[in-house]
Design brief:
By secondary structure, this protein is mainly beta. The protein has 1 helix and 29 strands.
Length: about 325
């Protein structure tokens, strides 16, 4: 088939448009691929260290509010929400551009934080007011406040089940909240001074880290009852579950270590040494590496979960804490 001059020009223009669409689409897909970063809140230097997980180095530092502590990452990898207790607000970060978008006032004592899949809603635990603030991030305002126990700290949002789990440190309880009705469904008694929380990937097991009795309480999320108490190291603080749900990793502040718990067996099977006063802990999506923020050493320890060995320590800002979910990875 032959084309006239005009037809050839039309065809050429059409092909150019197709090529542009393909290239643009490919570029957008490439840009949308998950990056491998850890966001470390540094409470004493008022900033966040961003670690490139593949290179295991700090690539940039983001200024935040005063004394950043808690952190949550949206599942799409676009946003990070950081609590700033001393400035009584949260920082909203662009997790791709490594910039602060906004600061939103949230109450007297923001500590723990969780967020939904796109970071449009933040759930903030207020230590002093004993409430959970439900924050509309785009409108930059609190839309609801939910009463919980005394001194809420750790918080997890289980979006598939429309639930919030909150550790109430001074009540020795965990609150379970229906995130749709924004009402408390149940309150479960746990060990002494629960602070951090961890949830298995299937959502069936929730763990409260009980600071003052050196244990974790395993909660059955179907029956909403405490199923077991597991001893760990001295002054445990935070925990994270392996992606396959087989292991729980717990930071022990007073022992400078991480306890490895066999969940099925209900007992600690190993202890891994890290640096001074470990607090926040998170795991890569493939389950191969743990990242542990060390408050007393201004660093992050990286652990190979296959060998159970600490492989390196990365210097960060002062008072590294990262209380919550802080890793974006494939």
């Amino acid at each position: 088939m032959r084309f006239s001059v005009n037809e050839n020009a039309f065809l050429k223009a059409a092909l150019n448009r197709v090529a542009f669409f393909v290239l643009t689409t490919f570029s957008l897909i490439a840009c949308a691929e998950p990056a491998n970063y850890a966001f470390i809140t540094n409470q004493l230097s008022n900033d966040i260290s961003v670690i490139d997980i593949d290179k295991q180095v700090v690539v940039t530092t983001i200024a935040a509010g005063k004394a950043p502590a808690g952190i949550a990452l949206s599942q799409d990898g676009q946003r990070a929400i950081v609590t700033n207790p001393d400035s009584q607000n949260i920082s909203v970060l662009d997790a791709r551009q490594f910039t602060e978008i906004s600061q939103i006032p949230v109450g007297q004592g923001p500590v723990g934080v969780a967020t939904n899949h796109d970071g449009s809603i933040a759930y903030v635990a207020d230590w002093y007011e004993h409430k959970i603030s439900v924050v509309d991030v785009d409108k930059q305002q609190i839309r609801q406040r939910i009463d919980v126990g005394k001194s809420p700290a750790g918080i997890i949002y289980d979006e598939p089940r429309n639930r919030l789990y909150v550790a109430n440190r001074d009540d020795n309880t965990v609150s379970i909240i229906d995130s749709v009705t924004e009402q408390v469904l149940a309150t479960v008694n746990v060990g002494k001074s629960p602070f951090g929380l961890a949830l298995t990937a299937d959502g069936k097991r929730l763990f409260s880290v009980n600071v003052q009795d050196s244990s974790v309480t395993m909660i059955d999320t179907e029956s909403l009852t405490a199923a077991a108490t597991i001893e760990v190291g001295e002054w445990p603080y935070c925990a994270v579950s392996s992606p396959d749900g087989k292991f729980l990793y717990v930071t022990n502040q007073d022992e400078n270590s991480v306890s490895v718990v066999d969940i099925a067996a209900g007992k600690s099977i190993n202890t891994i040494e890290v640096e001074d006063s470990p607090e926040g802990i998170d795991i890569t999506a493939n389950g191969k590496h743990l990242y542990v923020s060390n408050w007393g050493d201004d660093s992050v320890s990286v652990i190979d979960t296959t060998t159970g060995e600490r492989i390196t320590d990365i210097k960060t800002g002062k008072g590294s804490r990262s209380f919550g979910d802080f890793i974006i990875s494939q």
